[in-house]
TrEMBL record:
<dbReference type="GO" id="GO:0003677">
    <property type="term" value="F:DNA binding"/>
</dbReference>
<feature type="domain" description="SIS">
    <location>
        <begin position="119"/>
        <end position="259"/>
    </location>
</feature>
<keyword id="KW-0804">Transcription</keyword>
<feature type="domain" description="HTH rpiR-type">
    <location>
        <begin position="1"/>
        <end position="75"/>
    </location>
</feature>
<dbReference type="InterPro" id="IPR047640">
    <property type="entry name" value="RpiR-like"/>
</dbReference>
<dbReference type="InterPro" id="IPR046348">
    <property type="entry name" value="SIS_dom_sf"/>
</dbReference>
<dbReference type="InterPro" id="IPR009057">
    <property type="entry name" value="Homeodomain-like_sf"/>
</dbReference>
<dbReference type="Pfam" id="PF01418">
    <property type="entry name" value="HTH_6"/>
</dbReference>
<dbReference type="InterPro" id="IPR035472">
    <property type="entry name" value="RpiR-like_SIS"/>
</dbReference>
<dbReference type="GO" id="GO:1901135">
    <property type="term" value="P:carbohydrate derivative metabolic process"/>
</dbReference>
<dbReference type="InterPro" id="IPR036388">
    <property type="entry name" value="WH-like_DNA-bd_sf"/>
</dbReference>
<dbReference type="GO" id="GO:0003700">
    <property type="term" value="F:DNA-binding transcription factor activity"/>
</dbReference>
<dbReference type="InterPro" id="IPR000281">
    <property type="entry name" value="HTH_RpiR"/>
</dbReference>
<dbReference type="InterPro" id="IPR001347">
    <property type="entry name" value="SIS_dom"/>
</dbReference>
<keyword id="KW-0238">DNA-binding</keyword>
<protein>
    <submittedName>
        <fullName>MurR/RpiR family transcriptional regulator</fullName>
    </submittedName>
</protein>
<keyword id="KW-0805">Transcription regulation</keyword>
Amino acid sequence: MMNRLAALTPGLPPTARRIAEFIATNAQDVVHMSVTEVAEGANASEGSVIGLCRLLGARGFQEVKLALARDLVQPIQFIHEDLAREDGTDAIISKIFRSGLQALQDTEKALNRVEVERAVAAIRAAQRVEVFGIGSAAPIAEDANYRFLRIGINSRASVDSHVQAITASLAGPEVAVLTISHSGSTQETLAATRIAKEAGATTIAITNFGKSPLLAHTDIVLNTLARETQFRTEAMTSRIAQLAIVDALIACLALADYDRALSTINSTFEVLTAKRV
Protein backbone atom coordinates (compact mmCIF):
# COMPACT_ATOMS: atom_id res chain seq x y z
CA MET A 1 0.00 0.00 0.00
CA MET A 2 2.85 2.40 0.79
CA ASN A 3 4.38 1.64 -2.61
CA ARG A 4 1.04 2.25 -4.35
CA LEU A 5 0.70 5.60 -2.58
CA ALA A 6 4.19 6.66 -3.60
CA ALA A 7 3.62 5.69 -7.23
CA LEU A 8 0.17 7.28 -7.52
CA THR A 9 0.70 10.56 -5.62
CA PRO A 10 2.59 12.65 -8.26
CA GLY A 11 -0.22 12.33 -10.82
CA LEU A 12 -3.12 13.07 -8.49
CA PRO A 13 -5.21 16.25 -8.49
CA PRO A 14 -4.56 18.63 -5.55
CA THR A 15 -7.14 17.32 -3.07
CA ALA A 16 -6.39 13.65 -3.66
CA ARG A 17 -2.64 14.38 -3.52
CA ARG A 18 -3.09 16.14 -0.16
CA ILE A 19 -4.93 13.11 1.23
CA ALA A 20 -2.34 10.69 -0.14
CA GLU A 21 0.50 12.72 1.37
CA PHE A 22 -1.29 12.89 4.72
CA ILE A 23 -1.77 9.10 4.75
CA ALA A 24 1.83 8.41 3.73
CA THR A 25 3.27 10.86 6.28
CA ASN A 26 1.04 9.69 9.12
CA ALA A 27 0.66 6.02 8.20
CA GLN A 28 1.32 4.75 11.74
CA ASP A 29 -1.51 6.93 13.06
CA VAL A 30 -3.87 6.41 10.12
CA VAL A 31 -4.29 2.71 10.92
CA HIS A 32 -5.97 3.83 14.17
CA MET A 33 -8.03 6.67 12.67
CA SER A 34 -11.53 6.91 11.23
CA VAL A 35 -12.27 8.21 7.76
CA THR A 36 -13.65 11.38 9.39
CA GLU A 37 -10.39 12.01 11.22
CA VAL A 38 -8.31 11.48 8.07
CA ALA A 39 -10.59 13.84 6.12
CA GLU A 40 -10.15 16.53 8.77
CA GLY A 41 -6.40 15.98 8.94
CA ALA A 42 -6.05 16.35 5.17
CA ASN A 43 -8.54 19.24 4.98
CA ALA A 44 -10.75 17.25 2.63
CA SER A 45 -14.16 15.57 2.58
CA GLU A 46 -14.89 11.98 3.56
CA GLY A 47 -16.03 11.36 -0.01
CA SER A 48 -12.65 12.49 -1.32
CA VAL A 49 -10.86 10.12 1.07
CA ILE A 50 -13.01 7.20 -0.10
CA GLY A 51 -12.43 8.27 -3.72
CA LEU A 52 -8.67 8.05 -3.22
CA CYS A 53 -9.07 4.63 -1.60
CA ARG A 54 -10.80 3.41 -4.73
CA LEU A 55 -8.03 4.85 -6.90
CA LEU A 56 -5.66 2.75 -4.80
CA GLY A 57 -7.66 -0.35 -5.73
CA ALA A 58 -9.53 -0.68 -2.45
CA ARG A 59 -13.28 -0.81 -1.94
CA GLY A 60 -13.14 1.69 0.91
CA PHE A 61 -11.12 3.24 3.70
CA GLN A 62 -11.20 0.18 5.95
CA GLU A 63 -9.51 -1.90 3.27
CA VAL A 64 -6.75 0.72 2.92
CA LYS A 65 -6.23 0.65 6.69
CA LEU A 66 -5.93 -3.12 6.66
CA ALA A 67 -3.38 -2.94 3.84
CA LEU A 68 -1.40 -0.26 5.67
CA ALA A 69 -1.47 -2.35 8.84
CA ARG A 70 -0.01 -5.31 6.97
CA ASP A 71 2.85 -3.04 5.89
CA LEU A 72 3.45 -1.49 9.29
CA VAL A 73 2.45 -3.71 12.23
CA GLN A 74 3.44 -7.11 13.51
CA PRO A 75 1.10 -9.91 12.30
CA ILE A 76 0.39 -10.89 15.92
CA GLN A 77 -1.41 -7.55 16.38
CA PHE A 78 -4.17 -8.73 14.06
CA ILE A 79 -5.06 -11.14 16.86
CA HIS A 80 -4.61 -8.72 19.76
CA GLU A 81 -2.54 -5.58 20.30
CA ASP A 82 -0.86 -6.71 23.52
CA LEU A 83 0.25 -10.19 22.50
CA ALA A 84 3.76 -11.30 21.61
CA ARG A 85 4.51 -14.32 19.42
CA GLU A 86 6.30 -16.14 22.27
CA ASP A 87 3.49 -15.67 24.83
CA GLY A 88 2.36 -18.80 26.65
CA THR A 89 -1.09 -19.58 28.02
CA ASP A 90 -0.57 -17.71 31.31
CA ALA A 91 0.64 -14.55 29.56
CA ILE A 92 -2.16 -14.68 26.99
CA ILE A 93 -4.86 -15.04 29.65
CA SER A 94 -3.35 -12.26 31.78
CA LYS A 95 -3.07 -9.83 28.86
CA ILE A 96 -6.55 -10.52 27.48
CA PHE A 97 -8.24 -10.18 30.87
CA ARG A 98 -6.23 -7.08 31.74
CA SER A 99 -7.21 -5.35 28.48
CA GLY A 100 -10.86 -6.25 29.08
CA LEU A 101 -10.77 -4.78 32.58
CA GLN A 102 -9.06 -1.66 31.26
CA ALA A 103 -11.75 -1.22 28.61
CA LEU A 104 -14.48 -1.44 31.26
CA GLN A 105 -12.76 1.06 33.56
CA ASP A 106 -12.08 3.52 30.73
CA THR A 107 -15.60 3.19 29.34
CA GLU A 108 -17.16 3.86 32.76
CA LYS A 109 -15.22 7.14 32.91
CA ALA A 110 -15.99 8.10 29.32
CA LEU A 111 -19.71 7.27 29.34
CA ASN A 112 -21.77 10.47 29.40
CA ARG A 113 -24.49 10.12 32.03
CA VAL A 114 -26.67 12.78 30.37
CA GLU A 115 -26.56 10.85 27.09
CA VAL A 116 -27.59 7.67 28.92
CA GLU A 117 -30.57 9.52 30.40
CA ARG A 118 -31.48 10.85 26.95
CA ALA A 119 -31.30 7.33 25.53
CA VAL A 120 -33.56 6.03 28.30
CA ALA A 121 -36.09 8.81 27.62
CA ALA A 122 -36.03 8.18 23.86
CA ILE A 123 -36.56 4.43 24.24
CA ARG A 124 -39.37 4.91 26.77
CA ALA A 125 -41.11 7.33 24.40
CA ALA A 126 -40.77 5.03 21.39
CA GLN A 127 -43.40 2.56 20.28
CA ARG A 128 -40.69 0.27 18.93
CA VAL A 129 -36.92 -0.13 19.18
CA GLU A 130 -34.86 -1.31 16.21
CA VAL A 131 -31.36 -2.61 16.99
CA PHE A 132 -28.69 -2.70 14.25
CA GLY A 133 -25.37 -4.56 14.31
CA ILE A 134 -23.17 -6.23 11.70
CA GLY A 135 -20.26 -8.66 12.10
CA SER A 136 -18.83 -8.71 15.63
CA ALA A 137 -21.53 -6.21 16.69
CA ALA A 138 -24.31 -8.62 15.67
CA PRO A 139 -24.20 -10.73 18.88
CA ILE A 140 -24.32 -7.50 20.94
CA ALA A 141 -27.38 -6.37 18.96
CA GLU A 142 -29.06 -9.74 19.52
CA ASP A 143 -28.29 -9.58 23.24
CA ALA A 144 -29.67 -6.03 23.50
CA ASN A 145 -32.86 -7.11 21.74
CA TYR A 146 -33.25 -10.10 24.07
CA ARG A 147 -32.78 -7.86 27.11
CA PHE A 148 -35.27 -5.27 25.83
CA LEU A 149 -37.90 -7.97 25.35
CA ARG A 150 -37.29 -9.35 28.84
CA ILE A 151 -38.31 -6.01 30.41
CA GLY A 152 -41.33 -5.47 28.16
CA ILE A 153 -39.94 -3.18 25.46
CA ASN A 154 -41.11 -3.85 21.91
CA SER A 155 -37.84 -4.52 20.12
CA ARG A 156 -36.34 -6.18 17.07
CA ALA A 157 -32.73 -6.87 16.09
CA SER A 158 -31.59 -6.69 12.45
CA VAL A 159 -28.17 -8.15 11.70
CA ASP A 160 -28.58 -8.56 7.94
CA SER A 161 -27.75 -5.51 5.81
CA HIS A 162 -30.80 -5.89 3.54
CA VAL A 163 -33.17 -6.30 6.48
CA GLN A 164 -31.55 -3.30 8.15
CA ALA A 165 -32.15 -1.14 5.08
CA ILE A 166 -35.80 -2.20 4.84
CA THR A 167 -36.38 -1.77 8.58
CA ALA A 168 -34.73 1.65 8.58
CA SER A 169 -36.85 2.87 5.66
CA LEU A 170 -40.00 1.88 7.56
CA ALA A 171 -38.97 3.73 10.72
CA GLY A 172 -40.56 6.99 11.79
CA PRO A 173 -40.83 9.42 14.72
CA GLU A 174 -42.34 6.65 16.86
CA VAL A 175 -39.20 4.48 16.50
CA ALA A 176 -35.91 4.54 18.38
CA VAL A 177 -32.93 2.98 16.60
CA LEU A 178 -29.95 1.61 18.53
CA THR A 179 -26.89 1.10 16.32
CA ILE A 180 -23.88 -0.80 17.63
CA SER A 181 -20.58 -0.24 15.80
CA HIS A 182 -17.09 -0.09 17.32
CA SER A 183 -15.57 1.85 14.41
CA GLY A 184 -18.64 3.88 13.47
CA SER A 185 -17.59 3.32 9.87
CA THR A 186 -19.25 0.02 8.94
CA GLN A 187 -21.02 0.75 5.65
CA GLU A 188 -24.14 -1.33 6.29
CA THR A 189 -25.01 0.01 9.73
CA LEU A 190 -23.95 3.51 8.71
CA ALA A 191 -26.38 3.45 5.77
CA ALA A 192 -29.21 1.97 7.85
CA THR A 193 -28.76 4.57 10.59
CA ARG A 194 -28.78 7.38 8.04
CA ILE A 195 -31.95 6.05 6.41
CA ALA A 196 -33.66 5.70 9.81
CA LYS A 197 -32.76 9.23 10.83
CA GLU A 198 -34.01 10.60 7.52
CA ALA A 199 -37.26 8.70 8.14
CA GLY A 200 -37.68 10.56 11.45
CA ALA A 201 -36.47 7.97 13.98
CA THR A 202 -34.45 8.91 17.05
CA THR A 203 -31.02 7.37 16.53
CA ILE A 204 -28.78 6.12 19.35
CA ALA A 205 -25.27 4.74 18.84
CA ILE A 206 -22.98 2.62 20.98
CA THR A 207 -19.58 3.31 19.41
CA ASN A 208 -15.98 3.86 20.39
CA PHE A 209 -14.90 7.35 21.43
CA GLY A 210 -13.65 9.51 18.56
CA LYS A 211 -14.87 11.04 15.33
CA SER A 212 -16.57 8.74 12.84
CA PRO A 213 -19.12 9.00 9.99
CA LEU A 214 -21.81 7.44 12.21
CA LEU A 215 -21.95 10.53 14.44
CA ALA A 216 -23.40 12.63 11.61
CA HIS A 217 -26.54 10.46 11.69
CA THR A 218 -26.82 9.93 15.45
CA ASP A 219 -28.91 11.90 17.94
CA ILE A 220 -27.54 10.26 21.10
CA VAL A 221 -24.03 8.78 21.50
CA LEU A 222 -23.00 6.24 24.15
CA ASN A 223 -19.22 5.93 23.93
CA THR A 224 -17.08 2.94 24.71
CA LEU A 225 -13.39 3.60 25.27
CA ALA A 226 -11.61 0.44 24.17
CA ARG A 227 -7.93 0.79 23.35
CA GLU A 228 -7.99 -1.77 20.57
CA THR A 229 -7.23 -0.62 17.06
CA GLN A 230 -9.76 -0.19 14.29
CA PHE A 231 -7.69 -1.79 11.52
CA ARG A 232 -8.81 -5.31 12.41
CA THR A 233 -12.00 -6.55 10.81
CA GLU A 234 -13.22 -8.04 14.11
CA ALA A 235 -13.55 -6.24 17.45
CA MET A 236 -12.53 -8.02 20.65
CA THR A 237 -12.12 -5.84 23.74
CA SER A 238 -14.79 -3.37 22.68
CA ARG A 239 -17.50 -6.05 22.82
CA ILE A 240 -17.07 -6.26 26.60
CA ALA A 241 -17.53 -2.50 26.90
CA GLN A 242 -20.53 -2.58 24.56
CA LEU A 243 -22.21 -5.28 26.66
CA ALA A 244 -21.60 -3.27 29.82
CA ILE A 245 -23.32 -0.24 28.27
CA VAL A 246 -26.25 -2.41 27.19
CA ASP A 247 -26.51 -3.79 30.76
CA ALA A 248 -26.47 -0.28 32.23
CA LEU A 249 -29.08 0.92 29.73
CA ILE A 250 -31.38 -2.03 30.46
CA ALA A 251 -31.06 -1.51 34.22
CA CYS A 252 -31.91 2.19 33.89
CA LEU A 253 -34.93 1.37 31.72
CA ALA A 254 -36.13 -1.35 34.10
CA LEU A 255 -35.96 0.95 37.11
CA ALA A 256 -37.65 3.78 35.19
CA ASP A 257 -40.67 1.50 34.51
CA TYR A 258 -40.22 -0.76 37.49
CA ASP A 259 -43.68 -2.33 37.76
CA ARG A 260 -43.96 -3.13 34.05
CA ALA A 261 -40.41 -4.46 33.89
CA LEU A 262 -40.89 -6.67 36.94
CA SER A 263 -44.20 -8.02 35.64
CA THR A 264 -42.67 -8.86 32.26
CA ILE A 265 -39.60 -10.46 33.84
CA ASN A 266 -41.85 -12.64 36.00
CA SER A 267 -44.02 -13.65 33.04
CA THR A 268 -41.08 -14.48 30.80
CA PHE A 269 -39.31 -16.24 33.67
CA GLU A 270 -42.17 -18.74 33.88
CA VAL A 271 -42.02 -19.37 30.13
CA LEU A 272 -38.24 -19.79 30.15
CA THR A 273 -38.30 -22.02 33.23
CA ALA A 274 -40.42 -24.49 31.31
CA LYS A 275 -37.56 -24.83 28.80
CA ARG A 276 -35.12 -26.06 31.45
CA VAL A 277 -34.86 -29.73 32.34
